[in-house]
Amino acid sequence: xxxxxxxxxxxxxxxxxxxxxxxxxxxxxxxxxxxxxxxxxxxxxxxxxxxxxxxxxxxxxxxxxxxxxxxxxxxxxxxxxxxxxxxxxxxxxxxxxxxxxxxxxxxxxxxxxxxxxxxxxxxxxxxxxxxxxxxxxxxxxxxxxxxxxxxxxxxxxxxxxxxxxxxxxxxxxxxxxxxxxxxxxxxxxxxxxxxxxxx
Amino acid sequence: xxxxxxxxxxxxxxxxxxxxxxxxxxxxxxxxxxxxxxxxxxxxxxxxxxxxxxxxxxxxxxxxxxxxxxxxxxxxxxxxxxxxxxxxxxxxxxxxxxxxxxxxxxxxxxxxxxxxxxxxxxxxxxxxxxxxxxxxxxxxxxxxxxxxxxxxxxxxxxxxxxxxxxxxxxxxxxxxxxxxxxxxxxxxxxxxxxxxxxx
Lengths: 199, 199
Fold this sequence. Notes:
homodimer, 199 residues, alpha/beta, Dna Topoisomerase Vi A Subunit, Chain: A, domain 2, four-stranded parallel β-sheet, two-stranded antiparallel ribbon, 7 helices, globular
């Protein structure tokens, strides 16, 4: 069976992509081989390059191929605001959706003692150093509203309090366009508990 | 924006994969960078290798990294049977699902005069040479039951008739487990027209 090997190897290698099962891996492999060899060669080249060169920003831990990412090295960004998120995808989402112009800090995870993930593993020692050294007026905690995300947010809040920095948490509740009938019970309960006075 | 470039380039490059839009490309890129760099490097290497080395089998036109694919070079396959399919994916599907042990011929397309695809473009001249030279007892035409697929099947049938080779077409009709109520009208009409006598 040494003959089918290279195609089979390619199909197996495609399975490292998230959400790609055997059928999709086969379709992707055959598509590249039959219809888009140039695109495939480009992908192979860029992927190799990206994996070799993209590392962590030394200040905010986001993914970048430079020592500092383009947000951290941009002097026009508001230096007194810091938004703390769990993943690089969260940074992209916030950049696309909001008009936030401050800096970020990417945890790359969340506190999870059961999985052995402590404060140092998600860079909270580095964050603490930033709290001490940087001219921060507001820290926005945008971790996910899960048990671990909330625990992480609480930990960061305690950390910021020690440096007298104002902390805010992004709002959680019923999404815009959502219908109460179909919202999960936890979100609805939270939305009731966090109701805002109307002027 | 030179800083986001490499990650952005990777996301763009991922879009050459079929069914991958901007969101999925982002998820795949970040997954590889954050969680599976080894898998990504392996994919990049195998993809480059596969694109450089996988070509066409000189006999059956299937994808292979050798001059002849492992089915054509396997002396244990039935030499008198030839199954004609449109794509390499069809070969994989038939190999997995059936007990067919003959050889294949892969058209890599179908007759489509409107798109400028004539007999030579799908290797029918090569197939005609096989009809003349090979000891074929049966040709099984397994092109898709589309207008172009049927036209291609008809053309092959005429070609085989000139060499006095028996031609058969795979059965089309209601799929096993299908319910008549939900079958499209064309398939149902075909199934009625092609009804088989029962002993």
